[in-house]
Structures are given as C-alpha cells and as structure tokens.
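Retro notes (design track)

What went well: tokenization of the new backbones is finally stable.
What didn't: we kept losing track of which sequence belonged to which structure.
Fix going forward: every design gets posted as structure first, then sequence, in one message. First example under the new rule, 334 residues:
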C-alpha cells in the first residue's frame, strides 16, 4: 500500500476534537504533505490549516483526500458521500481508516474505476504475503514494544525517526497501523493480517536494505496483553530488532479495558520481549525506555525518569516532555 501525496485532510462534519486524531497526527508528523483541510460545516473541528475546496486543493497539488476522522462503528456517513464522489470525479484518490471499506460502496468503486483513481482502505489488507522465515536481513532495525496497548509506541517511533535524522543517522519509519500508514504513505496494518502471516508481513515492511542506516518499526499491542499478544509476537519475530525501546504509561493500574489483569512489571515485560526477539535476532537488546508521564508533574516526571535510568542503566525519558535525544545517541554505537 503506497498512498499518493500530498493530502487534503477531510474532517467531514465532526465536532469532537478527539475524533480528528488521525488527521491531527498526520499534520503533526508530516505537515509538508498536508495541503489543507476540507470541512463540511463551520462547526466542524479545525486543524488550523487553510480551508480549501476540492478544486482548489487539487490545483495546489493534493492528490489524495484522506478521511482523517473516526466515529463510533467506523462507518462512512451518508452525508459525506456527495463530497467523496465529487473528489473522485476531480481525480482524487480516497484513503480511509474506517472499518467500512470505501470499495464496498458500489458508487464509489464505479467512480474510482471510471476516473482511474484508487481507494485505499488502510485498516484492511488484501495483498499477497508469505509466512515469515526468520532469515537474517541486511540493515539495522529498531522496534518499539509496550507494557500495554496505547502507551505511545507510534509517537516514540516517529520521535526517534525525527531525532535520529537530526543527529545524522538516516532513519526511516515503518508503519504497522492505520495512522502510521497515513503519516508514512505506505505500510501494512498488521492487525488486519491473518495470524500466520504477521511475521512475514513485518519482514515485507522492512526488507533487506543498504541505502539508509535504520528502520524504525512501529510496535503494536503488548506481549503480555491477553487480547493483543499475537500481533506483538509476530512483530517481534518479523522485525528481528537489533534494538528495542520499551513504552509505558506511568500510573496505569491494569491492562487497558481488562480491570482483572494487573499491569506487569517493566522487568517482566523486558524479559519476555528479549526472549521472543532473540529467536530471530540473538543480538536484540533494549536501548531505552519511553514513558507517558502525564499523571505526574514535570519535577516528578524528571525524578522518576532518573530513578529508572539508574535502575536499568538505560536512557529513560518522556518523549513529549523531554525528547528522545539520549536514546538516539545510543544508536550511533550499534
């Protein structure tokens, strides 16, 4: 999946700022590919971009209209369809992270075919994949892993990519989730892959390379989350990581949505990930810990980071508050 850029970010008629987190993520990490925004009503949330019509955005070079919002149920509202149809008639590709496929709408599929446009349903994957083989590949890889889901693995991966490039390491972000694919323009939504092919899909996302220094592979789920451990294991084996960064939310009491499952300790999570990773890369090692310290004030967060850094003899940081420069510096030595 490779989505043509630049984008026009479609915000529909949503009024909840949280519903626009996909579009906001694209703008935060790839502002250079965001031509503008398209809102259906004045009350629709705004990203602060220029409000453009479809025709104006296409004239400015935008080539894909990205549905940058989410709603309960992941369906495409009927009120959006005239705009999506008009976009295809102008020549836009459409990209969506909704559960409902664009291609399942007969009229959109016909319009796309008639106008030689593509429909990208990034939450789904229908391509051919091979099972993983565990063979060593050229190039160095970093994988973000977590104590749970939704602990900052994508944010940490993108922050590391940016910092490493600023430090002179040529790093490329490899997307494994919907928002990451929009940001990167390519990738595979790993949670849409049949279980037998997860490690093979990860090998396909980051094949042999010698034209840059590092691939930064976006982690998913957690090896000790009973709901999502399968995807995490497949990523570990397929990524064959030389380096791993552990992501954790300070203060989380239990596995997300599972109050009967207490959070595992950092020691337990790190040991489990090392054991699994070393099946396909015996040299796999942790190079840092990234924390979501939003439950702490800044002084408390600094103190806690220093405490864990002393305990684990690794750089420990909150990537939002303090950046990831110390972790990136570790990677010059690998």
């Amino acid at each position: 999946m490779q989505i043509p850029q630049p984008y026009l970010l479609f915000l529909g008629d949503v009024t909840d700022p949280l519903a626009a987190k996909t579009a906001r993520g694209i703008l935060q990490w790839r502002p250079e590919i965001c031509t503008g925004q398209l809102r259906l009503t004045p009350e629709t949330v705004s990203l602060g971009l220029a409000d453009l019509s479809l025709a104006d955005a296409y004239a400015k070079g935008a080539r894909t209209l990205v549905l940058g919002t989410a709603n309960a149920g992941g369906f495409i509202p009927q009120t959006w369809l005239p705009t999506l149809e008009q976009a295809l008639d102008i020549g836009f590709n459409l990209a969506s992270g909704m559960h409902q496929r664009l291609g399942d709408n007969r009229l959109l599929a016909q319009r796309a075919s008639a106008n030689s446009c593509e429909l990208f349903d990034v939450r789904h994957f229908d391509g051919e994949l091979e099972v993983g083989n565990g063979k060593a590949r050229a190039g160095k890889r970093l994988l973000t892993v977590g104590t749970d889901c939704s602990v900052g693995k994508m944010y940490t991966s993108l922050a590391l990519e940016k910092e490493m490039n600023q430090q002179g390491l040529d790093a490329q972000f490899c997307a494994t989730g919907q928002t990451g694919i929009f940001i990167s323009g390519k990738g595979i939504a790993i949670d849409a892959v049949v279980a037998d092919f997860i490690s093979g899909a990860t090998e396909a996302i980051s094949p042999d390379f010698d034209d840059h220094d590092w691939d930064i592979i976006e982690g998913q789920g957690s090896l000790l989350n009973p709901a999502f451990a399968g995807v995490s294991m497949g990523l570990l084996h397929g990524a064959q990581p030389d380096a791993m960064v552990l992501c954790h939310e300070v203060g989380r009491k239990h596995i997300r949505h599972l109050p009967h499952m207490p959070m595992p300790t950092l020691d337990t999570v790190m040991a489990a990930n090392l054991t699994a990773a070393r099946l396909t890369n015996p040299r796999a090692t942790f190079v840092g810990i990234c924390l979501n310290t939003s439950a702490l004030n800044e002084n408390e967060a600094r103190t806690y980071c220093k405490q864990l850094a002393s305990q684990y003899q690794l750089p420990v940081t909150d990537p939002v508050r303090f950046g990831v420069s110390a972790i990136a510096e570790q990677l010059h030595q690998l």
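Added context from the reviewer: The chain has a mean pLDDT of 95.
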